[in-house]
């Protein structure tokens, strides 16, 4: 009886029995986990509820069409130097070549650019070097040697097959003119007249032709007045060029005779060999001699530049005169050659003869044009003039007849 703890207590009431549920005694050996009974789900509950935004809102104002447009992206502000956007893709347009590599490339181009069949490709490579910024004062001598090789080609720079390549090459060379010294700039100026200005005269654009003619007139006006010394130097240069064309002017025997004559003159000037013992005043006058040599070099360079510039301008005038058969070129050529004739004193004696011949030819063609004749000798009649001659002899009127005999001509409206 001692084991029963509830002995002697009154029995529980009925209300307490209803409130307190009777749980079964748990069995430690077998524990069952009861799963809740599945609840029934209605099919209508599986449907998705409509979003609240789609419900019409009567109180909301109508949305304007302009408000639905996408806003323009704000203009990106330029980034400061040294900061780059990692998402932006950038391409490298230039290569970091060393000075030795650039010199080697220029030498290779120089060896190939003389060949007319390889000139087109070599000139494009030279342009790429210019655009990459490889032409610097340190490499300017190799660059000028490359351009000189291009101008020394057997094919002239005004040939129609290489005309465009020469124009592109020497037009690009103007961008690196600040890297050249004075003598190199003078050479580039002469080559520009021959390769760019002269080739612009072959254009089919009247505006470009007129602009080129104006440039030639300005260059003629900038020339100084020619002197007798310029005439003598021109004659000597022509003789030298003729000797080069015919071959070496002196043979080995002539050269030996000239050398022996020079040695004899030295012996006669100092027969006893005392000049070596006399102190010379070369050290005192050393600076003055250097100054004189520099001045003489500059003067010779200036004379050479003026002579070459005059020759290039004469070439341009001759090319322009050959295009006189083109009707829209005639007025511009008349003005250009007349300007050259008015400034004929700025050319040397032989160049004056060439300018006078050009002016005589152009003036004769101009007079024939005024008389109604073209360059070929046939009547140079425009479309208006031909129609004027045709309808001047026609018998027509708004009244379908002209007088009694129809002799009145329609000259009133034709002037």
General description of the model:
The protein has 415 residues and is mostly helical. Among the domains are: 99-200; 203-245 and 292-380, no CATH class; 381-415, no CATH class. Helices cover 52% and strands 0% of the residues. The chain has helices spanning 14-19, 65-68, 99-113, 119-131, 140-151, 163-172, 182-200, 206-222, 228-246, 252-269, 286-322, 330-342, 349-370, 383-392. The protein is elongated, with a radius of gyration of 49 Å. The relative contact order is 0.05. Mean pLDDT is 74; it is low at 248-253 and 410-415.
Helical content stands at 40-55%
User: Strand pairing plus helix content: what structural class?
Assistant: mainly alpha
Major sheet details: none
Number of strands: 0
Unreliable stretches, pLDDT < 50, 5 or more residues? 248-253, 410-415
User: What oligomeric arrangement do these chains adopt?
Assistant: single chain
Q: SSE string, helix = H, strand = E? A: HHHHHHHHHHHHHH
Which structural traits does this protein have?
14 helices, single chain, disordered C terminus, elongated, 52% helix, 415 residues
Short synopsis of the structure:
With 415 residues, the protein is mainly alpha-helical.
How are the SSEs placed, and which strands pair?
Blueprint: H1 14-19, H2 65-68, H3 99-113, H4 119-131, H5 140-151, H6 163-172, H7 182-200, H8 206-222, H9 228-246, H10 252-269, H11 286-322, H12 330-342, H13 349-370, H14 383-392
